[in-house]
Design brief:
Elements (H helix, E strand, L loop, with lengths): L1 H19 L4 H11 L4 H25 L5 H21 L5 H21 L1
Length: about 120
Amino acid sequence: MRQLKTIVIGILAGIISGLLGIGGAIIMVPCMVHFLDLPHHNASATSLAVVIPGAIISAVVYHSFGQLDLSLSAMFAAGGIAGVFVGTSLMPKIKPQVLKRIFAVLTFLIAIKMGVD
């Protein structure tokens, strides 16, 4: 049953990621924590590992549609790599409950901002 749940979560996250460009973490992390009983640290790490193949496929498809700005993508990637190094270095020092709250607040604020625009 766990394998089925994992595949369903992956499919849903992939569809939503492809449609909205959200990377899937916003779906996968809460689902892994609540439906698969993964600790928040493990769910975050797993989500990041899963994003790589999906991001590559999405980038190729969007590039074929002429919707990908490669120079802008390279700049974001450079900043993202630096940020990920800092974030992954800090994560083991932060309690899971604090990570959950940070995730919830950021998700909520982004939802409000997107709903207003």
